[in-house]
Write a structure and sequence with these properties.
The protein contains 20 helices and no strands. It has about 375 residues and is an all-alpha fold. It has three domains: about 120 residues, no CATH class; about 55 residues, no CATH class; about 130 residues, no CATH class. It is elongated.
Length: about 375
């Protein structure tokens, strides 16, 4: 089957990855063949024969591989760090009576089949916009044959589509993938099980306490855990590289105030600030220009020292919300109870109770000016 050759850097990267996956399949076949050879020698001769010298084997095997294996796969094979060992195995197989003229084309067919399957899946994933799930898969599962085999499966595009549907339902997709790997079960079965059970994680304390201006419009996970910085960043889809970039932007926006910037970056709610910056960056907004407000309005300096980090989080929230070009406005207190009452993630019974509490906290109005519902917040919460 001919390999699709679409133009563009993403497709070139996908093609290169497909070749590397086919090389993995090749290594697997060679490992099996070499194990059979050694077992036969032990049975008939009582011991294994030594492998030929690496330099000699490389010279002999290179000619055969170049002639009998597709050029992209042969180049990847001979460019790998383990090529000398594979060359020794090939020459040892030939000395044991294996006809490389028949063996190599058969192994090449296996590698081509894997290469073409991965390329076709990558093209389909690109058409269906499911490539993000492969990136998530590679970030979640440890490197190895299991992780590499999943995207090369013919069912991978369907699995990716299921992952997208799970994400839309509020399920932690990374947790599903990690659990599937830890339990040693098939990922597709784990996804199907989660869809069948329609599992929805309970709302965590951190998620409830985070509803408000800081998280307005953000895709806040129900089981948010801010006690674990690395996990919180993963839950909010902030990669290590993105977190490093946003941290650098804060430091650049606060020259000479490294201590204060460090308090902001070390604060428990920093992942939420980073998530806000990521959302703004994806929308093409000038995040760094917004951050300059941190030194434009230093009212966060006033107050008890132990609460400086929390005030800096509030200041960063205000700076990121306020449009560029407007004069810096003083920060105002927000009725967080009313904000939580409007949240779609909060339990309905609690939402009603919170709404009543927020309403009772408002000053009395004349009958013709009474308002219904919770007190207005600074923005629509999730």
């Amino acid at each position: 089957m001919a390999t699709p050759t679409p133009e563009g850097e993403p497709f070139a990267a996908a093609a290169g990855e497909a070749v590397q996956t086919s090389v993995m399949a090749w290594r697997l076949v060679m490992a099996v063949a070499d194990a059979v050879r050694r077992q036969q020698q032990r049975r008939h001769k009582g011991k294994e024969e030594d492998l030929p010298p690496a330099e000699q084997a490389v010279s002999e095997a290179a000619t055969e591989v170049t002639k009998l294996v597709p050029s992209d796969i042969s180049a990847a094979l001979m460019g790998g760090a383990d090529w000398p060992q594979m060359a020794q195995q090939l020459v040892a197989l030939r000395r044991a009576g294996v006809d490389l003229g028949e063996f190599l084309p058969r192994v090449g067919d296996i590698a081509v089949t894997v290469r073409d399957a991965v390329t076709a899946n990558a093209a389909r994933a690109a058409r269906e916009r499911t490539g993000q799930w492969e990136r998530m898969l590679r970030e979640t599962l440890p490197a190895g044959p299991v992780r590499e085999a999943i995207p090369s499966s013919p069912t991978w595009p369907d699995i990716a589509a299921d992952l997208a549907r799970l994400d839309e339902r509020g399920v932690d997709v990374r947790q599903i993938l990690a659990a599937a790997h830890d339990e040693g079960v098939d990922v597709h079965q784990a996804v199907a099980r989660a869809l069948a059970e329609d599992a929805v994680p309970p709302v965590s304390r951190d998620a409830v306490r985070s509803y408000g201006p800081l998280t307005t419009g953000l895709d806040l996970p129900r089981d948010l855990d801010l006690s674990d910085r690395a996990r919180a960043l993963r839950q909010l889809a902030i990669s290590p590289a993105e977190n490093e970039r946003y941290s650098r932007w804060v430091l650049e926006a606060m020259p000479g105030r490294e201590r204060e910037a460090g308090l902001l970056l070390a604060h428990r709610q920093w992942p939420l600030v980073a998530a806000r910056m990521a959302q703004m960056e994806s929308e093409g907004m000038p995040v760094r220009e917004h951050l300059t407000r941190l030194l434009g309005d230093t009212s966060w300096e006033k107050g008890p020292g132990p609460q400086l980090g929390s005030r800096l989080v509030e200041a960063a929230t205000d700076a990121l919300h306020q449009p560029v070009g407007e004069a810096a406005a003083s920060r105002v207190k927000v009725n967080t109870m009313a904000a939580r009452a409007q949240s779609a993630t909060l339990d309905p019974t609690k939402r009603q109770a919170a709404g009543k509490s927020a309403a009772s906290a408002k000053p009395a109005l004349a009958p013709h000016r009474q308002q219904s519902g919770p007190a207005p917040s600074r923005g629509k919460t999730r």
